[in-house]
Task: inverse folding
């Protein structure tokens, strides 16, 4: 692993909302602090799990500033999502992350125009880096084609890392396609590759992967961090003991709808019904899942 790579357990934070659907600052700060205390290396505000594209740029910047000004997190613990379709808006969000000292910015590809080729995507990312200039943070490429309709291919990932080795340093694979994860690791050894599920954390790290960026870090980060540490230590007994629980927890929450399931579980554990709120087009979380999960 290169010196400029990042690694570890990264939590893409849920975004709690008040009943009027404004961001609930007190729950957000409490949740972020709890996740760090339980062992996350980094927080990633406003990824898919954080309903990023249901929040304005102003809201997203405000929450990052609050995390830092409150002392809950320092910039070096943050890897916010900053990718939008508009290059200008993406530059603004990414420059803001740099100004706060964030460890990296996680970038979706431009996602409205379907099936852009690698050349067009290379043009987008290279123009982004050129536009940011000296205020370019480390960049995590965010591959989630089932949502965006746009793939960040292994070849494009390798090309970007080769062209900008100190900037394009990581790749989050949320495709659920293990073959793609392996292909990126093989094509771009200079990238820190993060699967989006802890269920393949060991498999990924065995091949040179960097850890995981997983939605269920919001509900199970202590055990996920324990697995990460066990893999580093080569503790096969602990790995075997942790793996079934990680798989069961992930499957239960994923079956409940992932974001809604996580929020339902947070509501049950905290006894705060504000966690059930989601912004449209989502519907609010079903409280029964969290209550049944907590009791079971």
Result:
């Amino acid at each position: 692993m290169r010196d400029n790579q990042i690694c570890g357990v990264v939590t893409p934070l849920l975004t709690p909302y008040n009943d009027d659907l404004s961001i609930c600052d007190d729950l957000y700060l409490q949740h972020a602090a709890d996740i760090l205390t339980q062992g996350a290396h980094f927080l990633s505000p406003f990824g898919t799990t954080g309903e990023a594209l249901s929040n304005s740029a102003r809201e997203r910047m405000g929450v990052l500033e609050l995390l830092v000004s409150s002392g809950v997190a320092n910039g070096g613990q943050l890897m916010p999502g900053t990718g939008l379709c508009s290059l200008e808006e993406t530059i603004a969000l990414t420059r803001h992350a740099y100004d706060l000292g964030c460890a990296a910015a996680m970038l979706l590809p431009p996602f409205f125009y379907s099936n852009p080729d690698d050349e067009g995507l290379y043009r987008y990312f290279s123009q982004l880096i050129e536009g940011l200039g000296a205020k370019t943070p480390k960049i995590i490429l965010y591959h989630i084609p089932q949502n965006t309709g746009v793939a960040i291919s292994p070849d494009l990932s390798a090309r970007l890392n080769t062209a900008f080795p100190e900037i394009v340093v990581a790749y989050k694979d949320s495709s659920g396609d293990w073959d793609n994860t392996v292909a990126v690791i093989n094509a771009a050894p200079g990238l820190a590759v993060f699967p989006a599920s802890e269920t393949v954390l060991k498999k990924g790290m065995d091949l040179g992967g960097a850890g995981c960026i997983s939605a269920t870090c919001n509900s199970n980060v202590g055990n996920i961090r324990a697995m990460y540490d066990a893999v580093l230590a080569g503790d096969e007994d602990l790995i075997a003991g942790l793996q079934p629980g990680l798989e069961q927890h992930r499957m239960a929450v994923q079956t409940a709808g992932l974001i809604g399931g996580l929020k339902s579980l947070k509501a049950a554990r905290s006894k705060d019904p504000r966690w059930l709120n989601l912004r449209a087009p989502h519907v609010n979380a079903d409280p029964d899942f969290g209550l049944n999960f907590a009791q079971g």
In short: The chain has twelve helices and seven strands.
